[in-house]
């Protein structure tokens, strides 16, 4: 099953193009292919769209074509030689399906078959050509079908190029020049041309082609020099022919001191005449030629060897080695490339042209390779320039020039096959220039198929070959390609590559010719002018149109007035197109700007969102940190105060108890009235006193212990900053809070810097201003939080003060202890009584006044009258310590000093 890879419109897609050019895409025929791979790759375009053929029977000019004509690509298959047959080269890998379709099947040993077996490529390939010529095709048949028409076109003023392409030993030189009695395309074309020009030749040498396509008037002395040169070249050919016997000419290539040997083996018939079959030159007459015009024919012959240009008609060869002069490529004023100082020889007959060709061939670089005994090691280019001379005008400036160029490209080959260094170098250069030609053709085709996309640069300048042929691909004329292949299975892979190369060329269409531009100008002149008048040129054309002729492709037939008018029209047209382009550019710019603005706005929105999210995240994080800190501090202080309270209460209870136990024995003395009981009472009193004393001693011991404890506590409380207990920890927490605050401030500063840079990136958009406000607000929040921490610090100071007061209370208690009777003899009953009464009467008088106030401040809620006060008054009267205590007593606790985020504004 054959699958057509070409796109429906005839031009393959880029992917297909890549596939077609660089990779074989066939799978094993009926075997190991990848599931998605077709069995046969069709590497040729336009199978569904027939190639645009010129209308038969009617002269077709490039500017007459409605549909651009495709480049013609012919395939010629060389027959196998007996030696090749004996070697088993015939394996049926090339099959001609029909006149236009070729099938290539990979032989077993080929690389293609190996890759196909791995499922990477296919093993069968199908190609389409303008026409395929089998091995049985004669030179005459080939000429008739390919070049005959080109010769006609050239004589009618067109430019034509024919070049051969193929692997080495495939028959390119045979096709162009011929062999033995089998004259090739070039001698046949020359012969045909001169037969057509019989009686129309312009033999004077005063007009000579030069540069790209110019003509120069020669002075008499220059004419003489030209004559001498021409005659010497023709005479040299005669001499060489007469002393023939297999000449070997040695040339110094002049490149880096390297010598290249040019083995000249004449393969053309060594006769003075072109050997052609009588019927091949059937005189078709000069009916197609322009009336009143004479033709001056000039030829040039040069080669591109190792990327250097050598003039093959420069001078007669000699047996002595000599330096070959390299030619340079130059550009004319319009940038058209031409070979500078190239020899142009005027020829007046087919025979002279033939001799010049033979003379040039002797200078050409041939060498024996493993594949071809007489292989061309260079690209040779033979050009015929036809000057269309109007004898009565004889004006070189207005003269028309047409050209036929025939290029015999050196064969592509595998460098690894070349043993010798020189052959290797040649092969590399040949392959490089052929590769460049392929890239140029691919780029041209890409540009033709993708008109809406920006055009690719065609790498004409990358090699000398493409540079000299550039004009034929860019509207100077049209080109045709002859692909030569042979049937040898051993070079199947190279043949496949050559055919893939040609497959791209088959997709090319001829570029618009310069004449098309002329036709365009004339069409503009036909259009009504702005003021409603019709141009003179239009009248001229109408007259000619009425004759039914289509000879109006030449702008030179217009008179001066018409040309001036044409210039005006063209100026207006240029102006119009310029305005059109300006408005188009403005529209495009507008679209681009609006699209860019959209993108920028999108970016800005995204950036603002990100910033906002980050800001919120950081706020949240730091609020959490602050609230954690608050909670922690609160818990810590609450715990500490609770412990102290308990200790103080315990101490108070102990003191009270001790006081009571000491006072009670003296507070209830009973008067003794009865004398009989005094002794027993005295005894019992003594024993009671003893017991009391023991108790008192015990109490004193206990008091002493408690005093020590109190002293210790006092010591701790006397140095609040350095003791490292309560206040030290509080200080540390406070420091930690400050540190966190500093960190928060630094983060916010960093956020501000980010915001500023973000603002700059967003083209100073108003979003930045908003974010700056947000940052300012955050700063204010920080300041407020600073204030709150200060408050906290103040509260802590107050707590410390309270603690100090408590310490003083403890000191007072100690002093109270000192007021107690020292251990020893029992105190007097009255004294004890007084003390006992004082103790029984209440302890208010025995305590310092501030101690009472301290406990009152500690437990304000226990005072019954307190409940009647207003809450505000309560809040106002509370000390920080009592506030904290109150928080502890009431559930749930009051809101922390630092409010959460939702109430932040109110703080
Ligand atoms: N159509 C043909 N009929 C008979 N013989 C042919 C044909 N084509 C080529 N040959 C012979 O094949 C041999 C190689 O041909 P030729 O030298 O033209 O190949 P080439 O492609 O020019 O090689 P290279 O690129 O190495 O110069 C020559 O001996 C030639 O006579």
From TrEMBL:
InterPro entries: KIF11-like, Kinesin_motor_CS, Kinesin_motor_dom, Kinesin_motor_dom_sf, P-loop_NTPase. SMART domains: KISc. Keywords: ATP-binding, Coiled coil, Cytoplasm, Cytoskeleton, Microtubule, Motor protein, Nucleotide-binding, Phosphoprotein. Its main location: cytoplasm. GO terms for biological process: microtubule-based movement; mitotic spindle assembly; spindle elongation. It comes from the Eukaryota. This is Kinesin-like protein. It comes from Gouania willdenowi (Blunt-snouted clingfish).
